[in-house]
Amino acid sequence: LRMPAIEDFMRFPQQTWEKVLSKVKKAVVFMDNRCAEALHWSGGAAVLLEAGARNLKEFSSFEACGENEPKAVFVVSTLLKGRTIDIIKDIISLSHFQYCVVITTVAHSVHLAANSVTAEMDGNPVFEQFEEKLCEWMGNMNYTAEVMHVPAVFAPVSQQLLLTPVFAHLFPLLLPDLDALNAKRPEKKRFGNLVDVDTNSLPVELQLEIKSLAAVLNSMFEAAGTREESFAVGPMSRIIAGELASHPQAKTRRKTAPNKASVIFVDRTMDLTGAVGHHGDNLVEKILTVLEPLPGHVTDIQVDMLELTSLQRTPHSNNILAPGCLAQTQSPAAQALWETMLTSKHKEGVMEVRRHLVETASKEKLPIKMSMGRVTPEQLCSYMQLFRSRPGMLESHCGVLQLGLATAQTLRHPIMSRWDACLAFERLLLQALGDSDFGAVLRQLLPLVKPRGGEDSTSPGSKFREDECGPNELILLLVYLYSLADEAQPSDQDAEELEKLERELMGALTLVIAQEQHLSPLLQKLTGCDTPEQLSMERAHAAVEMIFQTLQGLSQTRDHLKQLRSVYTASDGVHQATYRPFLRQVVEEVFHPDRPDCPDIEYMSGGLTDLLKTGFSMFMKVTRPHPGDNPLLIVFLVGGVTASELRLIKEAVSTHKPGSQVLVLSTRLLRPADIAELLFATPRLTPDIGV
């Protein structure tokens, strides 16, 4: 038995892209946004062009090729059905291809399931049929068509973190989803709880999404020669782990794979407090919150590069200059800096940015003014401006400079004062929960819920203070509070009182949203309106009602757990009340020296033999596998992970079992506002699988 190394898994994204690269010589490549985002973290468009691709275009019906471009490669993250097929047909019919390659990240087994084929089949009949279709569309059955599956869904965002942008909108179900599922079931077959929901009772789109995720995870374990022992915490995690356990190819792999690893799937809904709170103390979390996202991307952001040029800032200068970003795959110095920024505390991250800039400038013999003490954005900019209009140096150190600019632009951004205001208020709410009932704590939120800019906020010229909470922050504070509702003191207040208070809050929040003069992306998604002019009071109220329906069930997400039920420690008179991160509790359980059997970390790989053993356990001692048994631990967060949780995991491991290998997988890297979108504006039951 060789120890599986994290490197085996971190190499996998590169290996999958190599399969794609082997097909792109002399081709025009059409790629959808989700695949483009995965490639972005594995070298980006440059690697395609180096491999001989002639051009890279968006996967869209509005694109096509000229007569002198006979070869096309399509890379898509969706099933070869419906809309995806229509787009491929449109592009081919407007072009003059003689050779087409279609690469989908969705496995053939999932295509069979999508076509309701349950039998095991030899070969790839769905792909073979599609190859014939492609030749038909190209207009000659002797032309060449290839259709294949490559699991190019993983983005290696850091040495210990793999993301799957393709599944960025996969999120554990909530109580409103349970109601929606039950509404379509006969009375006697309704589910009492999310824990009771099984794969087959989910809508077909979600079933296919989960099967697709299980298939790419299986490919990854196969490439790393690893058999996994799966554990799950939370209802969606159980379904995904169960799907991986019963995946047809996983069974054969588990018999022959030389290495072993433990995988714990954890539902994001087990800890929403940590995902919306501003206590992360992490530089990257702030960068992701403050700077605009790269168009079409879920994770990376745009860095304004103007300061490194001699251009004047005008309304159009943004369109002249390509933005920088955080994914610096070509520069080892920038990668080292990024790792520190991602997994350290805010202050250490900022100090490290300064150190890198000072070292880089000194290496280039630039006239640098050393200064100790607090790092300011002005100081960082003064170092970076030394590189201005020096093309050779800019090219050599572009990676570090982009991370430096991202840091300076975040530190001096007006939103940062709102971040601190939210943090202060969350701390107040934490203390209040230990002393009062939920209604009383909720009442403390009411004075904050008012339109920005004070009394005369309806007059167009009124200015609001930078640290005033806007609707985005208010929604996040509500999520924070409702996720902890069960921690409040028992109430002698009747339900009617609480309902009345909630109605008051709903009215106030409706006003706040309706009077916004600029709709943030979150508000656009919540209300379905692009501009304040389109937003009526009715639409604002409907959005707020829907938010509160979801909020009211958030405190029950851990009700089915026996041991890890709380993320809160009340004040004991000496210490203040604190938030206890759920992930830290899970990792501490896994690496606890006494190896306790935690009932909430459920073993999922056993299948029938395990059930039989459990039946015999009255007569003999049965030991369940423990997630701490194997040399490698993989934690998969279903629904996203925050940068500060990466640090928590790293710290918990080095405290409890130094030297252990831990790899984190997740669907996305979260900023607090993402959670509001996933809770209130994402169709969780019917993800978009391109059909």
TrEMBL record:
<protein>
    <submittedName>
        <fullName>Sec1 family domain containing 2</fullName>
    </submittedName>
</protein>
<comment type="similarity">
    <text>Belongs to the STXBP/unc-18/SEC1 family.</text>
</comment>
<dbReference type="GO" id="GO:0016192">
    <property type="term" value="P:vesicle-mediated transport"/>
</dbReference>
<dbReference type="InterPro" id="IPR001619">
    <property type="entry name" value="Sec1-like"/>
</dbReference>
<dbReference type="GO" id="GO:0015031">
    <property type="term" value="P:protein transport"/>
</dbReference>
<keyword id="KW-0813">Transport</keyword>
<keyword id="KW-0653">Protein transport</keyword>
<dbReference type="InterPro" id="IPR027482">
    <property type="entry name" value="Sec1-like_dom2"/>
</dbReference>
<dbReference type="InterPro" id="IPR036045">
    <property type="entry name" value="Sec1-like_sf"/>
</dbReference>
